[in-house]
Write a structure and sequence with these properties.
Oligomer: single chain
Helix content: 40-55%
Distance between the termini: 39 Å
Structural class: alpha+beta
Largest sheet: 4 strands, mixed
Number of strands: 4
Radius of gyration: 17 Å
CATH architecture of the largest domain: 3-Layer(bab) Sandwich
Number of domains: 2
Shape: globular
């Protein structure tokens, strides 16, 4: 099969007490694996697409055969989003960003605290299942947005910088229906080093300084 479940980059219990071991085991081993399995199944009748990466499939979404677009949106989106999510967190992380990430967030949102408030609002106010994102939008500006289900900003031509899963399966075992509590806990595991690297790489790929704008 062209796609396989990537290993979690840390132990299942590494993010405790903020995200519990059982949630991570089920989230990674069951939910993420299901997206991988279903993506491979959807691509069985499209050998020309089997050699493409998940990002290539999503960025090239508009040009895909119509009979595979829904599966790519849902299954490939779910697979890519989760792999990105795991790498946005880490043990011993959290706190406030420093260096390049801190400088960019200050320029864009007036500082970490205003950014955190606006990102938290996007995550907690999103109706139903989905994601909250910080992206370098295709217009070259930083934006905060949310997407439903497993939709990914890649389809719209944006470059994700930070993403938070707000599907109930991401938090229900520990936090039940208390999504705001989960979101507040999640800030304790955000990997700001990864965010800084993504910001720097996005700027290099854009070939220009990152312009800034508030959340939409």
């Amino acid at each position: 099969m062209p796609h396989a479940l990537p290993p979690l980059p840390y132990a299942f219990d590494a993010l405790e007490p903020y995200i519990d071991r059982q949630t991570m085991e089920i989230h990674h081993g069951k939910h993420h694996q299901a997206y991988i399995t279903n993506l491979n199944k959807a691509l069985e009748g499209h050998p020309a697409l089997q050699g493409k990466s998940q990002e290539e499939l999503l960025r090239g979404f508009a040009g895909l055969p119509t009979d595979v677009q829904t599966a790519v949106r849902n299954q490939c989106g779910g697979a890519w989003n989760h792999a990105f999510f795991w790498k946005s967190m880490g043990p011993g992380k959290g706190g406030e960003p420093t260096g390049h990430a801190a400088d960019v967030l200050k320029a864009a949102f007036g500082g970490f605290a205003p950014f955190r408030d606006r990102f938290t609002l996007a995550a907690t106010s999103h109706f139903g299942s989905g994601w909250a994102w910080l992206v370098l939008a295709r217009n070259g500006r930083l934006e905060i947005l949310s997407t439903p289900n497993q939709d990914t900003p890649l389809i719209e031509g944006h470059t994700p910088i930070l993403g938070l899963d707000v599907w109930e399966h991401a938090y229900y075992l520990k936090y039940q229906n208390r999504r705001p509590e989960y979101v507040n806990a999640w800030w304790n595991v955000v990997d700001w080093d990864a965010v800084g690297r993504r910001l720097a790489e996005a700027g290099r790929q854009a070939g220009q300084a990152i312009e800034t704008v508030g959340a939409r």
